[in-house]
């Protein structure tokens, strides 16, 4: 009897050891899986980080090239790029667009650095007959732009238009008051949209095409700044759905730029 009990206890002990070993094996296996997953995530995150750093370096290099090229404008008084102003990527797009299109009417929603650059390029190209209007809802910033333009001897060919924001019932948001009347009968060849400010309201710049569609020329080009922001991406999608007469080119460098080109002989 004692031998039987001894054998039974030994069997139970062996079973217990086997179960314990199995549990430890499961624990070790789970730990190995966790470690493997963490290593994979670390590798993935490192790749993402390296990609991000690489993109930033390329972006910085391009910004440097752009800034150096813009020195050729030879301004008497400096202008600044980035943050709230347009960046050098968009500035390069503006210069190339003006050079290619030779627009007879340029309208900017939002005054600032772009105003000075556009005016200087027009002067260098001898396009003094081009109607160049810069619109701002803040008279303070419009006057600052006017002063910088004056210091660069560019103010005489710029139409500085103060257009306070007012509630627009059609779009249920704030928009430039009496904008069409202030632009007049000019047909817009190049429209730059850098206002109203994005943080002011949801989809702040959406009304630009609906409000100005009657003033857009048959082959107009529209440049939308800050196209990397969620609101601007949403605006781009809405415009493409609602107005079939456009094709869009998106460039993500810097703040991001969306370039809308109107398809010839096609109504909006």
Topology of this structure?
Layout: H1 2-70, H2 88-101, E1 105-109, H3 113-124, E2 131-136, H4 139-151, E3 158-162, E4 165-168, E5 173-176, H5 179-183, E6 188-193, H6 208-212, E7 216-225, H7 230-242, E8 246-251, E9 257-262
Parallel strand pairs: 1-2, 1-6, 2-3, 6-7
Antiparallel strand pairs: 4-5, 7-9, 8-9
Helix pairs in contact: 1-2, 2-3
Structural commentary:
- The protein is α/β, with parallel strands linked by helices and 268 residues long.
- The chain is 49% helix and 19% strand.
- The protein is built from seven helices and nine strands.
- The protein has helices spanning 2-70, 88-101, 113-124, 139-151, 179-183, 208-212, 230-242, and strands spanning 105-109, 131-136, 158-162, 165-168, 173-176, 188-193, 216-225, 246-251, 257-262.
- It has a seven-stranded mixed sheet with strand order 3-2-1-6-7-9-8, sandwiched between helices. A two-stranded antiparallel ribbon has the order 4-5.
- β6 (188-193), α6 and β7 (216-225) form a beta-alpha-beta unit.
- It is elongated and about 110 Å long.
């Amino acid at each position: 009897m004692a031998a039987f009990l001894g054998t039974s206890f030994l069997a139970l002990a062996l079973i217990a050891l086997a179960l314990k070993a199995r549990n430890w094996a499961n624990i070790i296996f789970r730990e190995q899986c966790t470690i493997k997953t963490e290593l994979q995530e670390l590798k993935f995150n490192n790749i993402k980080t390296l990609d991000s750093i690489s993109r930033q370096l390329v972006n910085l290099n391009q910004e440097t090239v752009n800034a150096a090229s813009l020195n050729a404008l030879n301004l008497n008084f400096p202008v600044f790029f980035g943050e709230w102003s347009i960046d050098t990527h968009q500035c390069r797009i503006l210069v190339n667009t003006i050079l290619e299109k030779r627009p007879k009417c340029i309208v900017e929603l939002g005054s600032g650095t772009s105003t000075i650059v556009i005016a200087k390029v027009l002067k260098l190209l001898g396009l003094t007959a081009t109607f160049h209007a810069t619109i701002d809802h803040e008279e303070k910033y419009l006057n600052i732009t006017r002063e910088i333009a004056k210091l660069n001897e560019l103010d005489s060919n710029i139409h500085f238009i103060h257009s306070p924001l007012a509630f627009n019932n059609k779009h249920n948001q704030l928009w430039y008051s009496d904008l069409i009347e202030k632009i007049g009968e000019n047909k817009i060849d190049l429209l730059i949209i850098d206002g109203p400010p994005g943080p002011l309201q949801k989809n702040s710049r959406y009304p630009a095409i609906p409000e100005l569609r009657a003033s857009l020329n048959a082959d107009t080009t529209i440049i939308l700044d800050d196209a990397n922001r969620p609101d601007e991406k949403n605006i781009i999608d809405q415009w493409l759905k609602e107005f079939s007469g456009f094709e869009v080119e998106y460039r993500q460098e810097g703040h991001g730029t969306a370039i809308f080109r109107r398809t010839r002989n096609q109504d909006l």
